[in-house]
Structure formats: structure tokens, C-alpha cells
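Worked Example 4.2. Read the sequence first, then its C-alpha cells.
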Amino acid sequence: MKAIVYTQHGLPASDPKSLFETDLPQPTPGPRDLLVKIRAIAVNPVDTKVRAGAPTDQPRILGWDAVGVVDAIGSEVSLFQPGDEVYYAGSIARPGSYAEYGLVDERIAAKKPRTLADDAAAALPLTSLTAWELLFDRLGVEEGGGDGDALLIVGAAGGVGSILTQLAAKLTRLRVIGTASRPETAQWIRDLGAHDVIDHTQPLLDGLRAIGVPQVRYVASLTHTGSHYPQLIEALAPQGKLGVIDDPETLDVMPLKRKAISFHWELMFTRALFETPDMVRQHEILTNVARLVDEGTLRTTLGEHLGQINAENLRRAHTLIESGRSRGKIVLEGF
């Protein structure tokens, strides 16, 4: 099968050797696996981080967002049949979706939204899982809850932020405050349902005070946590909750003690990586997301379509993500 891989980590995305096309054997499904013929993929920051920093001794396939058709199933699969259209984010411990075929455990896949084309659906899985788990599983907000409280989303215009903004605005009663630094990204966040937008290049506390919010109950820090950390602690109310998804070099938790602020990591790969007893929850989350999309409650966060799935376009996608100026999700479609 055709696959786009890397063999040498740390190369700039513009280097033709950073991602290149090769032929690899088509994988064979294990007992709980779906063999999926991939039709569309999305590119995420984790793709660029692995390419840049993870050594490999053999060609490695990146990519953990995919839409495709089930071609074959393992002996113990019960949730799907060949021919089903599915979407999923995969496991970081397995080969990814930059290939014509991929394997995914049925417990972390779901039938794709009926009302979306492949490219629009491919934009959803990884960010939807991250946002849903962060809001409901980690921060502990209840659906329909949060009345009188506020959620500050730092980096609300990115892939995860674009979904989290919608989930919080549509499924809770929280006052949703997103951060953005450009007029176009600020408008994007408002269009997704944010009640307020403040500029994260300016002091966050000043921005919150300007909209009459001295403190917030919840913070979802999606980017640049290290640089905002002291301000986030000050902005959080006593007994507030701080959720983080990015990779700060280090964080000192001691400043959280005085306010009894709880700290919550979110990594959507954890359930699949450790095959936790509740691994099937990701199938359930993606099924709920598909239903909400088909009902018109949620919308795709597709930002840019860069054409076919090939090495040149994937290098372009990685370059754009590394620039820090992408909006929404970057999608490629077809081989």
C-alpha cells in the first residue's frame, strides 16, 4: 500500500526527506481491529511534534485522524461491519493514517456523521475527543451544568479550542470566554458560540476585568501554558480547576495549593495506549459527536483543505501548523 512516512526525526518540514512516499505491506486486523480504507485525514500538532522529536528505526506512518470505509474486521469485532463509513483518531502506539489502509481498535472508532463529507468529518475525531474528555471527564463539568460559572479557553481558535468552544456553549450553561490575538480568529471563536473573546497577547487579568469577570471557575489551557501559568492561577477562583493539554517544559504545582486549585492533564491517547477498562468511551463520545453534528448542534472545524494525501501536501500542512497561524483543522483527501 502507498504510505507517507519519515525515517529521520528533526528535519525541517520543508525538507523532502522529512516526509516521503513509500510502499509498505497492507496490515492485517487483530481480533478487535477494523481494517479501514482511508479516504480523508486531518493533520494535528501532535503529528509535527512526533516527526520533529521521536526517533524511529523503521519507516513510521504519522497521522491520527481518519475517515474511511471498513474493508475487513477482526474475529471479535461486534460494533461494525465491512462497508461501514467510520471516523477515528487512532492510537499513538500504532501506525497512523498517512496511508491507504489503517488499523484501528473498534472501541475507539465510530460511524462518521451522515451529514458531513469525508473532509469535514476528518477534521473532528482527535480534537472532539480531547475537548469532550477535557470538559466533561477531566474538569468534571456536567452536561447542562455550570450555571453562574465561567470557562476561560486559552487558544480557543485552534483545533481543540474550536470544538471545546462549541461543546461548552451548546451543552453547558457556562459563560465561555475564548482567547485570540487576531480579528479573524476572534470572529471565528464568536461564530462558534463564545460569549466573550479576550486577547492572549495582553494581560489576561486585564482582559477578564474589562468584561466584568474577576475570576473563573474553570480554565482550559490549550497552548503556551508555561507563559500564562501565573496569570491563570490568579484568574482562577478558589477551588477552581485547571485543565492542560500542551507540553510546558515544567510546571510547579505548589502555587495551586493556596487556592486548592486542582490540576488536570488531558491526553486523548491515554485510553487506547493503556487499553483502559473504559476504552470504549471514545467510541461513545465519537458516536455522540456524530449525532450532535447530524442534529445541527455542532459543526465541523475544517479550516483548510490542502488537496490530495501526498508527501508534498503533508509537508505543507506540517509547515503551516508549525507557523502557529493555522485556524481550525487542516485536511487532505484521497490518494
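Now turn to a second chain, presented in exactly the same format:
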Amino acid sequence: MNKLSGKVAYITGASKGIGEAIAIELGKLGASVIVGFNNDLEGAKRVVNTIKENNGYAVALKGDISKSNDILDIKDFIEKKFGKLDILVNNAGISNLGLFMDYSLDDIDNLINVNLTGTMKLTNALFDLIREGKNQSIINISSIWGNVGASCEVLYSASKGGINLFTKALAKEVASLGIRVNAVAPGVINTKMNSWLKDEEKKDLEDEIPLNRFGETSEISKVVAFLCSDDSSYLTGQIITVDGGML
């Protein structure tokens, strides 16, 4: 039997990048996967098909976690179709590069509403479904910049710093219910988000990483899978940094 057989997992932002890798990995381990997406329907369909090709079960679920009505629709769908939720991976997020003083008030609202407020609202709304089971896991995808902050990514850093403390505080609050809450803080990962880098810029960045390369999405998804499984049964309230030794 696979490690996650019988589990229902919902991954937000799962139509590409790190979220896609997580969805596929959890599907391989036997979980019934809900592939969350907002705009990228074709990407979500591709992920669902990949999971099915690996003999797994998956469905796509559209929803904007920055909107309360969408969150309630997400809850309604999961409750009616599955009746429970064993694994919640809060991966959806956006980032902006630029000086903090150049951002508009709307820019601040948009990023915080997705990365921090949306994550908290979604977790709150789905909590009744999560606590219905046993040995449940909530995994939040943070960032190394949530640990130390980054110039020209002040909003993103602040939102991920909030995610880190949300993780630690919630873990203490729900541990007695058998729910574990952890976060993964990736470093520089080889995704389309970093495809804009020129070869020279990429080389300079790789030189700052002791392992001398960008991480792969599969290296994040395997850590998430570990946190979802009973192999990490005594691990909660932790921020697991996966950055090749960069920080």
C-alpha cells in the first residue's frame, strides 16, 4: 500500500511549478489529489492527466483564494465530493520585484490577500473538513526570504514571514487534535518564475549557492510528501528550509 493511500489532498496553485510537482508526487503515493488553480485551466488539466497516467486519482478545482466567496465554493466542493480533507498544501502565491516605496496601496493589498490572508482564510474555512480525520497535515509553502527578508522583495518577504509564524502558532494550537502543521521554505528553484534570468545572472546566483545549482521542483515535492506521511509523525511547527545551503 502506498504511504498516502486513502488520503485526500488539496494543493493550491497546482497547475505549474512547485505546486504541480507536489500534486504529482502525492498522487504517486496514493493520495486522491485536488489540483487547485485560478487562471491556468490547461495547466491544471495537464497535471490531472499526468496523475491519472501514473494510475492515480485527481480532479481540478478552480478558485481564487483571495476571494471569500471562492473559498466557500472550494469548501463546498470538497465536502460534497470527498467529505473530508487529510492534506492541505497552501502553495498558491504571487511575487513582485521592485522597491517598496514604488508599490501602490493596491499592490500591497493584492499580494497580502493572496500570500497571507488568503492562506489563512482558506485554512480556516477548511478546518472542519481537516479535523474530521486522523493524522492530518497542513503544509505551507514559504520561502527563504520569509526567514531573512530580501531587498526589492519586501512585500513578498513580509507575507512569507507571516506564513512562518502562522505555521508555528497554528501547529501549537491544533497539535492535540492530531493535526500537524509545517512549512517548506524553498531557495532558488528551477521554475518558469526564474526563466527571465540571463545566463550571466543565473551563473552569479548559482555561485552564491554552496551546492552550485538551482533546486528542482521534485526536491521540494519530496520534502512535502515526507511531511504529509507518517514518516514525519513527530514533526510539527517547523520551517524546513530547502535552499542548497544558500542561507
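Notes for the reader: The beta strands are 8-11, 32-37, 57-62, 87-90, 136-141, 179-186, 239-242. The chain has eight helices and seven strands.
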